[in-house]
Recover the amino acids of this structure.
């Protein structure tokens, strides 16, 4: 049934917008609720600054260590600053782009991709910079607003719906800095804002604990394999036997780069047993590609390679399928708790063990494996594949291609180092603890977000009561 929204001409002129989407009833009612409180436009209490123009920096400008350079996927939908996948720029580039320097207390908001999500630069990050698809909100000293409260408000439904209303572009897929300034935010009591900050910082601590635990698991693995601080040497010139080319069915020079074999040789020198992945696979199944014409803006998640990392599922450029199509595909293509997922296309070699039951369909770029866990610990196996041991083998298999594809027969040949079961379990325990800490961080942020919504809808007192009961 069609929905009509009648708007006065005076309102139309005031907003300077002619598109019907802007006047949807569900978007307009947000403003009406906020008007019941003292509100202020962000642009009147903060400076909003875009990131540097897209051509200012490219991937080749990234360095191994330096100033953190934030990209869209470094801002999670929960409000965390994703530290797992940071890149860095040199001090000189940072100084050249000084206007987009972000400091502790600054709020960073996404302008494209998953638009309008925000996070806060924490005290342990002395300074950083950010891409053009992000913007910085720097509150003025007189704003009466806490940056952690501002971030959580932007991630709440009252911030999200305003963002949706203010989005522009041919497909309504971005928000400009000038429109970020128009987002209105309520003045809630200082006591409540401080409590939101407290819950937020607790979540951040849990998240950092998660990072530390995962790093401990990676370090323990490499130490036990004798690969701690090991760096393979890439040779500029090398030779290969013709017989090796025939047996490998490869003639591209990259495949015979000695660095790839160096890792395996190092493991053998350390008397580490190696077994092909096929030994542990009970079954292997590829996901499905339903076609982009079936993508939706909402519905059940369609999990593509870009939505999977070694730490779990991400919302990066998330696509969705209709409920009807999901029901048709779920029996065969929905991952179950305990399933072993492995990417084979685009970014091959990402391994992840599904920790909790999810609703979603995996794409054809992802393999779903059933692993015989009486033979090997699945979390240990995933960590091995994600480590330098797996990466070097995958890089070798997929080299020479413009679009990377890892064939199932190559997957099965992947050499897996075998450590004692007790050591495998110790490593797996650290991975599981890391997951639990991340889960707790997200739960705390969800509590803080809901508390902000309750405070707006009802009262700060009721919101504080909600926090005390759930946090």
């Amino acid at each position: 049934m069609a929905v009509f929204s009648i708007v006065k001409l005076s309102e139309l002129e005031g907003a300077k917008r002619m598109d019907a989407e802007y006047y949807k009833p569900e978007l307009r009612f947000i403003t009406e609720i906020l008007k019941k409180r003292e509100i202020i436009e962000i642009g009147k209490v903060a400076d909003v600054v875009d990131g540097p123009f897209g051509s200012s920096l490219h991937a080749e400008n990234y360095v191994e260590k330096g100033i953190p350079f934030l990209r869209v996927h470094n801002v999670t939908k929960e409000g965390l600053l994703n530290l797992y996948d940071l890149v860095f720029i040199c001090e000189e580039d940072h100084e050249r782009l000084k206007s987009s320097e972000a400091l502790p207390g600054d709020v960073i908001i996404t302008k494209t991709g998953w638009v309008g999500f925000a996070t806060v630069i924490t005290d342990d990050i002395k300074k950083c910079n950010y891409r053009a698809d992000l913007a910085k909100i720097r509150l003025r000293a007189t704003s009466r607003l806490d940056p952690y409260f501002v971030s959580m408000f932007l991630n709440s439904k009252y911030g999200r719906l305003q963002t949706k209303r203010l989005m522009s572009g041919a497909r309504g897929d971005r928000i400009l800095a000038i429109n970020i300034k128009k987002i209105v935010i309520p003045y809630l009591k200082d006591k409540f804002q401080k409590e939101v900050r407290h819950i937020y910082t607790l979540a951040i601590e849990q998240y950092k604990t998660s990072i530390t635990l995962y790093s401990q698991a990676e370090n323990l693995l490499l130490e036990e394999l004798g690969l701690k601080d090991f760096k393979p040497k890439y040779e500029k010139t090398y030779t290969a036997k013709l017989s090796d080319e025939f047996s490998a069915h490869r003639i591209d020079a990259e495949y015979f780069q000695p660095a790839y074999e160096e890792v395996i040789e190092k493991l053998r020198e350390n008397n580490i047993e190696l077994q092909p992945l096929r030994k542990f696979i009970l079954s292997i199944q590829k996901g499905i590609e339903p076609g982009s014409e079936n993508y939706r803006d909402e519905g059940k998640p369609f999990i593509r390679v870009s939505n999977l990392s070694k730490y779990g599922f991400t919302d990066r450029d998330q696509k969705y399928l209709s409920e009807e199509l999901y029901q048709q595909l779920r029996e065969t293509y929905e991952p179950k708790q305990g399933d072993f997922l492995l990417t084979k296309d685009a970014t091959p070699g990402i391994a992840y063990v599904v920790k909790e039951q999810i609703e979603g369909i995996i794409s054809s770029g992802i393999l779903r494996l059933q692993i015989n866990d009486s033979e090997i610990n699945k979390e240990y196996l995933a960590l091995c594949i994600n480590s330098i041991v797996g990466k070097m083998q995958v890089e070798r298999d997929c080299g020479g291609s413009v679009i990377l594809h890892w064939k199932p027969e190559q997957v099965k040949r992947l050499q897996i180092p075998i450590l004692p079961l007790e050591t495998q379990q110790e490593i797996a325990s650290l991975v599981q603890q890391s997951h639990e800490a991340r889960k707790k961080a997200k739960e705390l942020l969800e509590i803080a977000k809901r508390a902000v919504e309750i405070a707006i809808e009802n009262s700060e007192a009721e919101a504080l009561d909600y926090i005390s009961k759930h946090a």
In short: The longest strand covers residues 134-139. DSSP finds 15 helices and 20 strands in the chain. The chain has a mean pLDDT of 89. Residues 421-457 form the longest helix (37 residues).
